[in-house]
Each structure stands twice: as structure tokens, then as C-alpha cells.
């Protein structure tokens, strides 16, 4: 051991240290931000992602893009986590958060080249983040859950630039109605109570809010009723079939009498299960498993409508909305376990013709439910791709409206908060000692990257926009932002461009967390190759990492 160095890594391991490791990670993080930069804003561009199976996704939604792309660089994945966190916390602002993270990493690299130590940059960034949060809270405006006008503006802002913009007013109104109905007594919003369903055909303008649950599963028998009033609902965590012990075993019958007895025993078992349902007084049954044909006939005879193989999410939604208690053993079933729906009816969504045979696409609606706040946004659209993008926009809007109601504060959009924060940071930097001051100034510059990108993507001069906005904010116009359509500076609240406070604060916190974590890494040890573009090292891929490793999965986007 004294004759040479101790080897602790395997021959397959690769290691990059010091400046090379840090540079590699910074480059990978910036690459993620650059990929989605052009999608920001009302006039941002879309991306088409094509996987190896030929499936196509067309979207400008930041988190959707990053989830669909094959990102396999560890540092880049940390930046992707910024979008994921933003989506989970508030539902919108994912692109802005990633762009901020990319700008922080880019500016940090310039500081590193000036021999500023990473810990000084990290300390300065965290100090700046605290200052920004205070600025946002100071300029935020209160919003009341009953202020539908502002809430609809919040919803519309989240939809702008996405496929739902042509019907923004209609969809915003639907989203606000759905979310306000889902507010709990403690002021929080039960977003699970708001379902979003899509049926292609017709136009987006034909979308609507349905007060109840849409249930696109046909009853197990064609003769079962599709129109019931005052229905008692059973949510059954099992099947109505012959038990597995009997159907799974081999039976040996000597004559037809034995066979008949075997069949009668099976039918008797099924009849006992149906009798338990009938005695409890159920009118509608949602079963987790299958329902035997003989059992289905017995249910028809007793005027009971049944659905089989209902997934857990639908069973849970119906149970919560009707007040039903999920039952796993029919022998224990009583009337107390049943829920109630004022109506269970079939609704025809559209008439279709298949092979010259008239048919229709329909859904079952559970309506007039005892539990308030349960609703479904029914989306219509000409194609599947259009509907997918509209649904993403609506889901984002549900998240931001929920955040606005829960927190009670909103901010102007159009880059106004970023410019206000940038000015405050430059002033704050004068009071910061040491090299951290440079990091605070770098943070201020990074914050201008969002408004700059917004102007660029809208086709306007970014430098003029930043200069004019800075001058207006310096004069006290804290709510002034850029109108993406005209390039003019306008009062954002008057223009209806409004975002929840949580969108901005979450974006700042997650971007800072990701960028500072990457900055603190000075050693990358990998068991496999992370080379640029996924190339092998012997093919010229170089050391592990690089900005690549993110291009293979979705049509080589990166």
C-alpha cells in the first residue's frame, strides 16, 4: 500500500473535478433553460416533440416539454425539478422559473471567472431571494374569493399563449366557478373535486361546466336504466362473479345432473350477492371488479344499474361526492353504506356515424349531489392535439386560481414584479459587504432576463422595453408591464394581466435552490458515461457530463 496511491473507484467509474465539473453542470443547466426560452409569454412559440414510437406532443407548456424530453444529465435534471416543483405547488410559471434558474447559473459562471468563490455566490443569491420575497409581498394586492373578476383575470393570464386563448373568457369563467365551489371551510381548495374531461368534436366554445361527475363507462347490460332520480349509490370494492376458489378449480362431473347442480350452485352464489345489494336498497352499483352476465340479468330484474371495472379514482370521487362508504364485503352491506345522487342520467355528447350506422358518444352524469363543490369541466375541441393543449391550460388555471384564493394576494404580470425586484436588489446591493455584493447584483440582472425574453418572444425590442420599464418603475409605477401584443407599457391590473403571489415566490425559491445546489458541486463521480449527446467517450464524447445527454428521447430536441 505504501508503494502507490490507494484506488477506491472501479475501472468503469468516471470522475470530473473542480472547475471542469462546475462548468459542465452550469452548461447543462443553462441548456435546459435555453430549450424552452422561446415558449415564454402570450406570443411564445410551440415545440413539437416526437418520440421513438412516432407519438407527437405539440405544446409550449414548460413542465410538459421537460417531462417529455429525454433529459438524462444529473445537473440538467435538477433544473427540470424546478419546473416540476412549480407545477406541483401552483400549476403555472414553470417556464419563468426555469428561465430564472438558467440566468442565475449563467451569471454565476461569470462571477466564477472573476475568482468569486461559489460559497460567496450562494450566500449572495440567498440574501437576494429573501429581499425579492419581501418586495413581492410589499407590492402584492389583496384579492377576495368573491372577487370573480380578478380571479377570472388570474385564470385568463395562465391560459394566455396556450391553445385555450380563443375561448379564454368562457374557460376562465368555468374555472373560477369550479374552483370557488371547491373551497373548503378552512379556506383551502380541494382541487381533486374539480375534474376535467375532454371529448373531441365541436369547438372549444362548446365547452361547459357540469355540476356533477361525468362517468364515461357504459352500464354492464343494455337494458339497465340510464335515467334515475334519487338514486342510492353503492361503491363496491370487489366483483359480482363466482368466487375464484370455485372457478379456478377443475370440476369432474359424471352426468348432466352433476353439471346442472354445479351451475345452480354458481348461480345461487351470484344470487346471494345480488340479494344483498337489493336488500340494502341500492339503485346504482360501481364495482371494482367484473360482473357476471347472470348477475347482470338479476340486477336488471331488480331495476339496478351497475358499472364494472371502475377505476379507483372514479370510485373515490363518486364515494366522496355522494357520501357513500366504500364496501369490500357484501355480507356486511347495509343501507348506511350507500351514498345518494339526486340524478344519474345519460348525456349524449355527440352523434356519430360508423360504417353508415348511426351511433352516439355519451357519458353518464351523477348530478344533484349532497356534497357541494363537485363539478366537471367538459372540454370540446376539433382534434386530440388541440384538446390536450387546452386541458393543460385549464389545469394550470385551476392551480393558479386555487393559489390566489388560498393566499389572498396577487401580483401584476407582464414582467412588472421582476423589474421592481431588480431595482430593489440593486439598491440592496449597496448595503451588502464583500463579494456577496456582486452576487446580489448578478441576481438583479438575472431577474431582468424574464421581461427581456417576454419582449423578444413578442417581437419587440428587448433593450428599449427594459429601459422604459425600469424608468417607469423608478418613477413609482410598480404595476407597469409590457403588453405583449403592442409592445406598449401598460398598467397590468387594468389590462387584466394578473398572477398569484405564490407563482412568483415559488419560482424564486425553487430556482435559487436548484442553482445554488449546482454551484456547490465540485466533483462528479459517475458509474457510466454522461457524455455530450449520449456519445461514447471513445467516439469523441469527452468527459462525463457536457450540455448534452438530453436529446435522444423526443426527436433530438436538444
Describe the structure.
The protein is α+β, with helices and mostly antiparallel strands and 558 residues long. It folds into two domains: 14-142 and 412-520, GROEL, domain 1, CATH 1.10.560.10; 202-244 and 258-381, GroEL. The chain is built from 18 helices and 18 strands. The protein has helices at 18-36, 62-68, 74-89, 94-113, 118-139, 148-159, 168-181, 244-247, 256-280, 293-301, 312-322, 384-407, 416-429, 436-447, 449-457, 462-474, 492-495, 501-519; strands spanning 14-17, 47-50, 56-59, 141-142, 194-200, 208-210, 212-215, 227-236, 284-287, 305-307, 339-354, 357-367, 375-381, 409-412, 480-482, 489-491, 498-500, 523-526. The strands form six sheets. It has a six-stranded mixed sheet. The chain has a three-stranded antiparallel sheet with strand order 4-14-17. Strands 5-13-6 form a three-stranded mixed sheet, with helices on one face. A hairpin with a 2-residue loop joins strand 11 (339-354) and strand 12. The longest helix has 25 residues, at 256-280.
Amino acid at each position: 500500500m505504501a508503494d502507490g496511491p490507494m484506488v477506491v473507484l472501479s475501472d468503469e467509474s468516471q470522475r470530473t473535478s473542480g472547475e471542469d465539473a462546475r462548468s459542465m453542470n452550469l452548461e447543462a443547466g443553462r441548456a435546459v433553460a435555453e430549450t424552452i426560452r422561446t415558449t415564454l409569454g402570450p406570443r411564445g412559440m410551440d415545440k413539437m416533440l416526437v418520440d421513438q414510437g412516432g407519438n407527437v406532443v405539440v405544446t409550449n407548456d414548460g413542465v410538459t416539454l421537460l417531462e417529455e424530453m429525454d433529459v438524462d444529465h444529473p445537473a440538467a435534471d435538477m433544473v427540470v425539478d424546478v419546473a416540476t416543483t412549480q407545477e406541483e405547488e401552483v400549476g403555472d410559471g414553470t417556464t419563468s422559473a426555469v428561465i430564472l434558474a438558467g440566468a442565475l447559473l449563467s451569471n454565476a459562471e461569470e462571477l466564477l471567472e472573476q475568482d468569486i468563490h461559489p460559497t460567496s455566490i450562494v450566500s449572495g443569491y440567498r440574501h437576494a431571494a429573501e429581499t425579492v420575497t419581501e418586495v413581492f409581498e410589499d407590492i402584492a394586492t389583496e384579492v377576495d374569493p368573491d372577487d370573480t373578476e380578478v380571479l377570472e383575470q388570474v385564470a385568463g393570464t395562465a391560459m394566455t399563449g396556450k391553445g385555450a386563448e380563443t375561448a379564454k373568457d368562457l374557460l376562465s369563467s368555468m374555472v373560477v366557478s369550479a374552483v370557488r365551489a371547491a373551497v373548503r371551510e378552512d379556506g383551502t381548495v380541494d382541487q381533486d373535486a374539480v375534474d376535467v374531461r375532454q371529448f373531441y368534436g365541436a369547438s372549444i366554445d362548446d365547452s361547459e361546466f357540469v355540476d356533477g361527475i361525468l362517468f364515461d363507462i357504459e352500464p354492464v347490460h343494455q337494458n339497465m336504466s340510464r335515467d334515475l332520480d334519487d338514486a342510492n349509490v353503492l361503491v363496491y370494492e370487489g366483483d359480482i362473479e363466482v368466487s375464484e376458489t370455485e372457478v379456478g378449480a377443475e370440476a369432474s362431473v359424471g352426468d348432466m345432473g352433476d353439471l346442472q347442480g354445479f351451475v345452480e350452485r354458481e348461480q345461487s352464489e351470484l344470487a346471494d350477492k345480488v340479494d344483498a345489494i337489493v336488500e340494502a336498497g341500492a339503485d346504482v352499483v360501481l364495482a371494482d371488479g367484473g360482473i357476471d352476465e347472470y348477475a347482470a340479468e338479476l340486477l336488471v330484474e331488480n331495476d339496478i344499474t351497475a358499472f364494472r371495472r371502475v377505476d379507483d379514482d372514479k370510485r373515490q370521487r363518486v364515494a366522496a361526492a355522494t357520501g357513500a362508504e366504500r364496501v369490500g364485503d357484501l355480507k356486511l352491506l347495509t343501507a348506511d353504506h350507500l351514498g345518494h345522487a339526486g340524478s344519474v342520467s345519460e348525456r349524449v355528447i355527440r352523434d356519430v356515424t360508423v360504417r353508415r350506422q348511426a351511433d352516439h358518444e355519451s357519458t353518464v352524469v351523477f348530478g344533484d349531489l349532497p356534497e357541494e363543490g363537485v363539478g366537471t369541466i367538459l372540454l370540446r375541441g376539433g382534434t386530440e392535439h388541440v384538446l390536450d393543449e387546452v386541458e393543460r391550460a385549464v389545469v394550470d388555471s385551476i392551480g393558479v386560481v386555487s393559489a390566489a384564493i388560498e393566499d389572498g394576494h396577487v401580483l401584476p404580470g407582464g414582467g412588472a414584479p421582476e423589474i421592481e425586484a431588480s431595482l430593489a436588489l440593486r439598491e440592496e446591493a449597496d448595503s451588502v459587504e464583500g463579494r456577496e455584493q456582486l452576487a446580489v447584483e448578478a441576481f438583479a440582472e438575472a431577474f431582468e432576463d424574464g421581461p427581456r425574453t417576454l419582449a423578444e418572444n413578442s417581437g419587440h425590442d428587448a433593450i428599449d422595453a427594459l429601459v422604459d420599464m425600469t424608468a417607469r418603475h423608478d418613477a413609482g409605477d410598480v404595476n407597469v408591464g409590457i403588453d405583449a401584443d403592442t409592445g406598449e407599457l401598460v398598467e397590468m391590473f387594468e389590462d387584466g394581466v394578473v398572477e398569484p403571489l405564490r407563482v412568483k415566490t415559488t419560482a424564486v425559491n425553487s430556482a435559487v435552490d436548484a442553482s445554488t445546489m449546482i454551484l456547490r458541486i465540485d466533483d462528479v463521480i459517475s458509474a457510466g458515461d454522461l457524455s455530450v449527446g449520449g456519445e461514447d467517450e471513445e467516439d469523441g464524447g469527452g468527459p462525463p457530463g457536457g450540455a448534452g445527454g438530453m436529446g435522444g428521447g423526443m426527436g433530438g430536441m436538444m
